[in-house]
Structure formats: C-alpha cells, structure tokens
Design goal:
5-stranded mixed sheet, two-stranded antiparallel sheet
Length: 148
C-alpha cells in the first residue's frame, strides 16, 4: 500500500558542481548523505560532462532494505538522463552497485516531475519570477513539501 515518504531539500543542498540534492526516506530509514556522495561521484565520473555547467539533480533515497542514488541530468534540449546506483543494507560488504536492473520509483518521480517543471520555467523561459532565467535560476528552484 502506498504511503507518502519524507522528501527534503534545502537551497544550499548541492554538491561542489551545483547539482541539486534531495533526500527521500521510508519510515524508520535514514539517508546517509556522506556515503551517498561517494556513489554520486562515481556516477558523475562515468559521464563525460562539465557538471558545473549542466542542469542536474540527485536523489538520495533510503528505501526499505536498500539505498538508492538517482542522478539525473538534462541534455539534448529536453531529455532527462537518469543513472542509478543501489546498495543493499543487509549485504556484506555494503558496496554501491550500478546495475541496469534497478531504476527509480514512484517517490523519485515526484521530484522528477517538479524538476521537469523547474527546467521548463528556468531554461525555456525568458524570466523566472521577474528574474533572468538560466542555469542559476534552475538551481534556485526546489521542490518544497509540507511533509506533515
């Protein structure tokens, strides 16, 4: 049965290249951002991109029994490119795996939908709330939820 999950972010949650960061957690699970950053950096290294000039976001998702890192970047004008790394909490050693058999889930899609709208508003519009649009405008826009 579907239950909403806690989705959090903040304006200053970004990596060194400006990639926006989100946390999603199932009830009773904690996101471990320091460990998730290791997987994020591995995913970034696999792509030959200038991340500081690329509109992108990353979801650190603590699910039931597994942790996910979902890195998404925009390219080819209007395409979203996801990459997923997973870690089983009960496995030894607890290593991040980049297996094409894993994908994002419906909770991640809530963030993706918001990011789609932010991308359109900031990179396909002349202004955002009266301010010039562009990559910096995109990076300022975040999904803010009332997780009550």
């Amino acid at each position: 049965m579907f239950k909403p999950r806690l989705i959090t972010t903040a304006p200053d949650w970004q990596d060194a290249d400006g990639i926006k960061l989100y946390h999603i957690a199932a009830e009773g699970c904690d996101v471990l951002p320091e460990e998730s950053l290791i997987a994020l950096n591995s995913l970034k290294q696999q792509r030959n991109l200038d991340w500081s000039a690329t509109p992108a976001f990353c979801i650190f998702h603590a699910g039931r029994g597994m942790d996910y890192v979902v890195l998404c970047h925009w390219g080819n004008d209007n395409e979203l490119f996801p990459a997923v790394s997973v870690r089983f909490r009960d496995a030894e050693p607890q290593e991040w795996q980049q297996d094409p058999g894993y994908s994002f889930c419906l909770w991640d899609m809530e963030v993706m939908w918001a990011e789609r709208n932010f991308y359109i508003a900031s990179l396909y519009s002349a202004t955002v709330a009266g301010q010039p649009s562009g990559l910096e405008a995109y990076r300022r826009l975040r999904l803010i939820k009332d997780n009550a």
